[in-house]
Every structure is written in C-alpha cells, then in structure tokens.
Amino acid sequence: MSGETQVGIIGAGPAGLMLSHLLHREGIASIVLERRSRDYVERRVRAGVLEQASTDLLAATGVGERMTREGLVHDGIKLRFAGEEHRIDFRRLTGQGITVYGQQEVVKDLISQRLADGGDVRFEAEATAVEGIDDDHPSIAYRRDGEPATLDCEFVAGCDGSHGVARASFPPPLAGEGQGGGPRVYERSYPFSWLGILAKTPPASNELIYAYHERGFALHSMRSPEISRLYLQVAADDTMDGWPEERIWDELRLRLAEPELRAGEIIEDGITPMRSEVIEPMQRGRLFLAGDAAHIVPATGAKGMNLALADVKVLAEALTAWYRSTSRDLLDGYSDRCLRRVWRAEQFSAWMTALLHRDPAGDPFEHKLRLSYLRYIATSTAAATTLAENYVGFDTAK
Ligand code: APR
Ligand code: PHB
Questions:
Q1: For residues 157 and 162, what is the distance between their CA atoms, to the nearest angstrom?
Q2: Secondary structure string (H, E, C) spanning 332-380
Q3: Lower CB count within 10 Å: N or C terminus of the chain?
C-alpha cells in the first residue's frame, strides 16, 4: 500500500460510510474524513425512503438489523388532489414496496458498524483540497483540531455532498461539451422550496400522502407511529420567520385535506431549495464522486439516499476488481454505469416535481393539465405503473 490508506473517503453521509463498509468487507482499507461531529451527523434530519435495492444492500451486508425491525414497510402511496384520493398500489403494480427509515438512522447504523469493525472515521476533520488525482499518488489535505494534515492514499472518493471540495479539484470545463477539460455540470433550479418539519404527532395516514392543491404541494410522511415528517411547498425566498407554527399546521391541514391533523411539538424545521444537478462524468483519474457530490435531485421522488447507496455499490465493486486483478475496466466504466440510473432518477424527480407543484409563474391552463394528468395516473394502469416502477426504483441495468 502506498500512503496511509488505500481509499481516502471525504464525507460520512450514507455514501461515504457505506463505501467504507463495503470496502472493509472486501479487505480494502479506507479512512473517512468528516468535517462535522459524530453527534451532528447522527442528528441531521434528512429524507427517509429506501427502495427495495437499498434495503437489500443494507440487509445483505449486515447493517440492516435495526432497519428490518424499526423501518416501516409501505406497499403504496396516496395521491390527493381536487377533493379526491387515489391509492397507487406499488406492490400490485411492481411486486415491490418501499421502507420508511430516516437517513440519520442509516447513518447511525453505519457508523456503529464501522467502529465495531475497527474502522477509521475521523470526525471534525475537514478536507480542504484533493491533490494528485491525475497521477498514482493522490492525497487529501485536511484540517483537524485547527492543524493542517495530509492523507496520502491510492484512490479518493468524494462523498462530500452538494457543496463539497472534491469536485473542485476537477479542472474547469472547456466551452461546449467539456471534452478535454473538466466535467460538464447540468443543472436546473425551481421557483419554490420545501418547508419541512419533524413533529411529535401520530401520522394521520398509514401511507405517504402526496397532495396537489391550488395553494401548492404538501407531503405527509412519518418516522414512527409517534413521529410525523411533513412538508409544504413554499416560495423560494420564504424564511421560517414567515411561517409561525399555527400557519404551518393550518396550511398542512388544508393542502393535505386532513382537517383532523393534530399539531404536535416541532422537533426540527427548515427550508430546502429544490434543485436538480448532475456532474458528468463523475470521475477523473483517481478521484471518484458519489452521492450528492455528483448529483442532486429534488426531494419529490425520494431518490437522494438511494442514488448515493447505488453509486457506492458500483464503486466498491470496481475498486475490488482493481485490487484483485489491477484491471481498470470497471473503474473506467464507473461513471457511465451510474449515470444511467442517475438520469432516470433525475427525469422521474423533475417529472414528479412538475406534476405536484404549483409554479408561481404558471397559468390556469397548467393547473388544469396537472389535474388531468393526476386523474390519468389514478385511472390508467399504464400511467400508475410508470409512477410506481420509478418510485420503487427502476433497474436501468435491464
Ligand atoms: N470535508 C469533510 N467532510 C465534508 C466536507 C469536507 N470538506 N464537505 C462536506 N462534508 C461532509 C458533510 O458534513 C456530510 O456529512 O460530507 C457528508 C456528505 O453527506 P450527505 O450530504 O449526506 O451526502 P451523501 O452521503 O451523498 O448522501 C446523499 O443526503 O442530502 C441527502 O438527499 C440527499 O438523501 C441524499 C443523501
Ligand atoms: C421523507 O419521509 O422525508 C420523505 C418522503 C418522501 C419524499 C421526500 C421525503 O418524497
């Protein structure tokens, strides 16, 4: 081994932690650098829907025990609009369901497994730059306890989320398609955000409710029989100051058509912009991006954590092939293999977002088109299957 470890990983989110875990199972050493504290990453509230492929990966690699016990298996979702409710039965349409299990619970389980296996996860260690990706000895510059340090390794995995430093070490793209220069960035922003709350109130429904209302989108999700996770479409420039608790609950009751929804203590709240982004290719030399570092999806399709886990499964297989046979074929094909799934998820997430949100600049015609399409999904098996097979995770390797 040249350097302190074989694979230097930046970021202890689902992508970085799962990669470190999968590599360990193949006898490959890694070190994870995370700029936040352990407590911070274990409490950070994010999304919570796992596709079957994600639950299978967690279970098959020995980190699914608590998820199997505490995760809530759902066989469908409810769509509500214009005073109607329609259930989309994923199980009947696709043979699969989803599991509702908070992202920070996945993070907790992975950290505890890495530490039990003697893994090296360095918290409060902030990567500042990645160097040498075009030669055989890359390194990560980082700061820990205010002191600069360097991690020498053989490969670098940038799992450092949407504002990470790993991608900054790519050269800038040339004009046009980016050939010869750095990767190309494809992006789209939306003229609205999501206000999300985690509240101590029993879920009003046993399944997720996606609601389209004249005043905008609302989503009813959950974390346990006592804790609900609720979202509202808000203006892109809204702040929490404009949303006192009473207003949040009133708006949720109205848009979700749940007049009995009980207000409860709000444990966490925040506003997240809706954004789509893909960096293509997701690799250069000895640096590989995974998860949010390489692509962002608007949360409507619940794909973020699933894409992160799927990327690192592919990356771990490619690194394993390299260490077994020094074949670079799988490493070279990493980005292409991931991007097929990523673009499917990007299209689905953008489509769900357009279908369920009120565009502030849109006209009444658009509103009517949306209602018509929602009714089409509610009444056509073909249309419902399109939603269902993408929601549970479409296998682009087919
Ligand atoms: N040095 C070290 N760690 C860093 C740095 C840095 N310079 N920059 C960011 N990080 C850490 C963040 O603190 C975070 O813990 O990288 C981690 C990235 O984790 P996530 O943001 O959870 O991203 P990822 O693992 O790709 O998981 C994607 O997260 O945002 C959600 O919706 C998204 O569900 C998806 C999932
Ligand atoms: C969540 O439970 O946080 C959640 C569920 C479905 C989504 C987004 C978020 O589409």
A1: 14
A2: HCHHHHHHHHHHHHHHHHHHHHHHHCCCCCCCHHHHHHHHHHHHHHHHC
A3: C
Verify whether ligand 1 is closer than 6 Å to residue 47 (CB atom): yes
Cα 36 to averaged position of ligand 1 atoms, centre (Å): 10
Which residue reads 């989320």 in tokens?
A: 161
Q: Identify any residues that bridge with 44 across adjacent strands, giving them in sequence order.
A: none
Are residues 123 and 34 in contact, defined by beta-carbon separation less than 8 angstroms?
A: yes
Reported as a single tens digit per residue, the pLDDT across 152-183 is 999 999 999 998 899 998 887 665 554 556 89
Which amino acid does the sequence have at 76? G
The preferred substitution site among 122, 160, 169 for testing ligand 1, maximizing ligand atoms within 8 Å of CB, is 160
In order, the DSSP letters of 177-195 are T-TTSS-EEEEEEEEEEEE
Cis check for the bond before 298: say yes or no (omega within 30 of 0).
no
The average pLDDT across 13-26 equals 98
Q: Ligand 2: does its nearest atom lie under 6 Å from the Cβ of 48?
A: yes
Separation between Cα atoms, residue 156 and residue 134, nearest integer Å: 11
Q: If you average pLDDT over residues 378-383, what whole number do you get?
A: 98
Average pLDDT over residues 110-130: 98
Q: Is the pLDDT of residue 263 over 90?
A: yes
Alpha-carbon distance 217 to 236, whole Å? Answer: 13
For residue 308, the surrounding DSSP H or E stretch is: helix 304-325
For the CA of 41, the nearest atom of ligand 1:
15
Distance separating alpha carbons of residues 283 and 134, to the nearest angstrom: 11
